[in-house]
Amino acid sequence: MEYRGLGKSGERISTIGMGTWQIGDVQKGREREDQLLALKRGVDLGINLIDTAEMYGDGKAEELVGEAFRGQRDSVFIASKVSPGHLHHDDVISACDRSLQRLGMRHIDLYQVHWPNQRVPIRETMGAMEKLVRDAKIRYIGVSNFSVEQTREAQESLSRSELVSNQVEYSVTNRGVEVELLPYCKRQGLTIIAYSPLARGRLPASRLPQSILEKHHLTPAQLMLSWVTRHENVVAIPKSARVSHTEENANSVASRLSEDEYRSISRAFD
After folding, report:
1. Dist. CA 11–CA 140, nearest whole Å
2. Residue 248 falls within a domain, yes or no?
3. What pLDDT, in 10s, does the model give residues 113-165?
4. Which of 3, 56, 184, 195 is catalytic?
5. For residue 90, how many other CB atoms are within 10 A of its CB?
6. pTM to 2 decimals?
7. In the annotation, is 262 catalytic?
8. Residue 156 maps to a domain
9. Residue 23's domain is classified under what CATH number?
10. Looking at the predicted structure, is the pLDDT value of residue 79 above 90?
11. For residue 101, which of 80, 151, 232, 255 sits 20 to 30 Å off, Cα-Cα?
């Protein structure tokens, strides 16, 4: 597995993480067992970044993550998110406490604002996030779905901590972040955490250069993950609900394409 720095923190996280959107809704049976096995298999393969949120499955995704890694806390880097309806100061604190309870953990490694809320001053929210850092309930602060201006405001609202990341949708078929946000985050030393890097399962296999797939013995999903993480400040969090998917995702960065090959893939979707 390949690892990259998280913002300017010095923390190392796996280039390919595991997302948990739409995971955890099933409370028993084979499907739930498959999800647990998929998460555990990822850690066996060197993945340490696990991303979840209080919003996913009404907290059930966090419960699943907690169950999967009980007794393995030191092996994983847990990222979760506070919902946009909980961004007032005291609501942030309470939401984090509930997430910690569902996870069965004493701290969250990366706590992110899931979506901005124009009705709540970002300074108020960031004040609560810094209190969580002081109280050792979280280690790092991130945002999600923030524009350049919103990211800058969040950064400037922090007095003692530094923003380390912005989680946004990014794939070969959804490249809007390349215009302003990706260059800005590069300049500021912020990590981009790419969600839905496999285009929500709608893999455009017919448009991917067949010669590159065959040369590197990659599946379409692996090629898309390699492409989206070609920038050093980008990591990806594809959903991992099956062991086979986790193994496929983890092997996507075992080798890297040439710059010409990355550009060829980009041109196919221009």
Report:
1. 10
2. yes
3. 999 999 999 999 999 999 999 999 999 999 999 999 999 999 999 999 999 99
4. 56
5. 10
6. 0.94
7. no
8. yes
9. 3.20.20.100
10. yes
11. 151
